[in-house]
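Before relying on records like the one below, remember that each one covers exactly one chain. Contacts with other chains, cofactors or solvent are not represented anywhere in the record.
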Amino acid sequence: MNHSAQLAGKVCVVTGGAGSIGLASARLFVAEGARVMLADLDADALRQAARELGDEHADFQVTDVCDSVQVRELFERTMQRFGAIDVIFSNAGTVGPIAALADYPEQEFDRVLAVHVRGAFLCCKHGIARMRDGGSVIITSSVVGVRGDPGAYAYITAKHAQVGLMRSVAKEAAARSIRVNTLHPGPVANAFQQRVESSLSEVMQRDAGEFFDQIIPLGRHARPEEVARSVLYLASEQSSFVTGSLLMVDGGMTA
């Protein structure tokens, strides 16, 4: 093991681990000496991701982050396989519809909030109890966690709510030197963003991807690997005095 690695000997749990940001972060965690438990809904994608990372470094568990029993089992299985947990990357997410307020489907509103907000809450509730002191919790919010736009009512509300959860948990977890922060990516070049932009393009009557590139000062979407480097910063001792914070990874979009 490379003991100069930033996460040497650490145990990390990544929800949304089969997605682009989750898997890019897991790759970096493993490269920096960590062992990783991946969680997602897609068993085949998880199996493939774990195989890529290597059986000695990674394992996976199909997990619905809205289900308390499944989330608790995820963290218990992680402890059985690798030991006490050092890093929780609560990264599972879903897009939800884009619609006018009067037409917005209430069931979808509840579903999107459940994945993002209840999911992050359950990760904190069950995960922090099984963490070593001095660990790190990272919750993936979004650039829209600090701004509003019409149409994406569930997603934007959920992303704001995660910040309130993070701030509250950070205050309690600080007694054990556990840091809790939110990550706020702007548009990322991945399948998740393509689904968002496909819906938005219809509403806007123009190419949403091009629109975003025009309003991002750095002039482009982020690559998943770039977001992962910010996740590593929050996971590692590089951020040893950072808690209760919002880390913007948005190319200046909110500047």
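The domain at 11-187+223-249 is CATH 3.40.50.720 (Rossmann fold).
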